[in-house]
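Researcher: Re-running this chain for the archive, since the previous output was lost when a drive failed. Same request as before.
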Amino acid sequence: MENFVKIMKQMSTAISGCISNDLGLPALTLIYCSIDIVSYLNKEDDEGNKAYFTKWVDIYLIPKLEGDVTSIDIYASRCGIVHRMSSESDLSSKGKARQIVYTMGKKAINIQDQIDKNDKEHLYTTLHIDELFDAFMQAVEKFRSDLIKNDEKKVIAVKRAKRVYGYCNVDKDQEYDITIT
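Model: Regenerated structure tokens:
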């Protein structure tokens, strides 16, 4: 679990760096990869990617977000960004999810009102990247808190977390414990 925590701290640092340098798409890519990673820890054995991703988002992320974005909108956006670098995905193309228009920056501009005037079919919704990242960090903390209270889920999560990729920085003077399982 120690390696998992280290990797997630690195992901958080990378996301923060992207946001502070106005790198919206790289930030979103890292946020969605991070949600994938954390939601995998909560996966039931018979669940597919979409099911465990949206379940985790419904339980932990959506309650932390303002607005009307859904877990399917989030999942579809994840697919579009990670696989196409686009707001469009198979789900949004089929009308099963809305495309998310992301905003960045400190100005409080409500573009949802502008979209609603022109989007009579409700194909779009908006989300601020900072809000998504903040909500994700709060969701991870709530998930961690829930794991502490549930030994069964904690055992599964720890087992899965041990599979997280690890690496060695060979430029640093340190001893390496290379364990291959």
